[in-house]
Amino acid sequence: MPIVGSDSLRRSVCEKWEKAWTKRALMGLVLGQFVSLLITSTGFSSSELARRGVNAPTSQSFLNYLLLAIFYGAFVIRRKRPLQISWYYYLVLAVIDVEANVIVVKAYQYTSLTSVMLLDCWSIPCVILFTWVFLKTKYGFRKFAGVAICVAGLIMVVFSDVHASDRAEGGPNPVKGDIFVIAGSTLYAVSNVGEEFVVKKADRVELMAMLGAFGAVVSAIQISILERSELKDIKWTAGAVLPFLGFALAMFLFYSTVPVILKICGATLLNLSLLTSDMWAVLIRIFAYHQKVDWMYFIAFAAVAVGLVIYSAQRKKDEEGAQVTEASDERQKEKDEEAVVLDNLTRGSIAAVEGQRSEDVKQRPSITSLPK
């Protein structure tokens, strides 16, 4: 006997699903999981280098910035177009980003891979605060509920690192490592919000080129001052070179994908998506390092997953409003580019006319008045 109203119930469920999970939300989740896997691979590389006694956090990031500068810089030079945002904004953003990478990589010397991954959720309340204050982003109750559940995992991880019985396996000084991760996550939040502002005002290629160029310069200066002795002491075997190269390649792909997510969904969803890398971090810790994982890690991961789903679901009118805003920004950017081109053409035409007039004056025969 068929259930009464089953068709209407099914249609109702489908309509609610389509309203909550729009194409924008699903695309953001898919790309978020891709960069989450990349972050997991960078964490694995950093943990492996720390296990081998390699302590050169700035050097690990230098190759990534150099790749960004070379790859995206070629497109910027080829376009022969002036920067859409002043260069000193990119310099400040590069300094913040470099130091955030250095601090977080340094944390692997003191705490476990899983703790570093889970404590990254501290950047989420920082991103919400910064986007609300500077970018005027509006958040509803559902967004705050999802973030609150994710941050609950942060408290569990800190408590576990302080009181777990397997603390020795987590690193020589887990609490110090946790402090480093929280400080680095705060800088990551500043960097992500700055990148979201730039990518919506300028474009992704310019952002990556300038961030890579200034990041490489800042990293090179810092390496020459702080890490020369560490680089000399490293034995460049395959076990040390491969994690270095793997870290640089994963970071290059990560940096190339992040601006796309920032433009689609914003910095908050990006940071929430990165928290799912904890699942991969736990698997690496269990199967690669044969370490015991405290039971609170699994509760923390469950909280992160639930919070991510709650935050990602959005109403249809929010999606339509985001699309209208994006289309308006694109039209404004096209108008600005057309204005620049028209201005250059006008200046060129004026210069050509003035040049032609001067040539005519030069070629015109001079008339000498004869004396009477």
TrEMBL record:
<dbReference type="InterPro" id="IPR009262">
    <property type="entry name" value="SLC35_F1/F2/F6"/>
</dbReference>
<feature type="transmembrane region" description="Helical">
    <location>
        <begin position="87"/>
        <end position="108"/>
    </location>
</feature>
<feature type="transmembrane region" description="Helical">
    <location>
        <begin position="269"/>
        <end position="289"/>
    </location>
</feature>
<keyword id="KW-0472">Membrane</keyword>
<feature type="transmembrane region" description="Helical">
    <location>
        <begin position="205"/>
        <end position="226"/>
    </location>
</feature>
<keyword id="KW-0813">Transport</keyword>
<dbReference type="Pfam" id="PF06027">
    <property type="entry name" value="SLC35F"/>
</dbReference>
<keyword id="KW-1133">Transmembrane helix</keyword>
<feature type="transmembrane region" description="Helical">
    <location>
        <begin position="238"/>
        <end position="262"/>
    </location>
</feature>
<dbReference type="GO" id="GO:0016020">
    <property type="term" value="C:membrane"/>
</dbReference>
<dbReference type="GO" id="GO:0022857">
    <property type="term" value="F:transmembrane transporter activity"/>
</dbReference>
<dbReference type="InterPro" id="IPR037185">
    <property type="entry name" value="EmrE-like"/>
</dbReference>
<keyword id="KW-0812">Transmembrane</keyword>
<feature type="transmembrane region" description="Helical">
    <location>
        <begin position="179"/>
        <end position="198"/>
    </location>
</feature>
<feature type="transmembrane region" description="Helical">
    <location>
        <begin position="56"/>
        <end position="75"/>
    </location>
</feature>
<feature type="transmembrane region" description="Helical">
    <location>
        <begin position="25"/>
        <end position="44"/>
    </location>
</feature>
<feature type="transmembrane region" description="Helical">
    <location>
        <begin position="114"/>
        <end position="134"/>
    </location>
</feature>
<feature type="transmembrane region" description="Helical">
    <location>
        <begin position="141"/>
        <end position="159"/>
    </location>
</feature>
<dbReference type="InterPro" id="IPR052221">
    <property type="entry name" value="SLC35F_Transporter"/>
</dbReference>
<feature type="transmembrane region" description="Helical">
    <location>
        <begin position="295"/>
        <end position="313"/>
    </location>
</feature>
<comment type="similarity">
    <text>Belongs to the SLC35F solute transporter family.</text>
</comment>
<protein>
    <recommendedName>
        <fullName>EamA domain-containing protein</fullName>
    </recommendedName>
</protein>
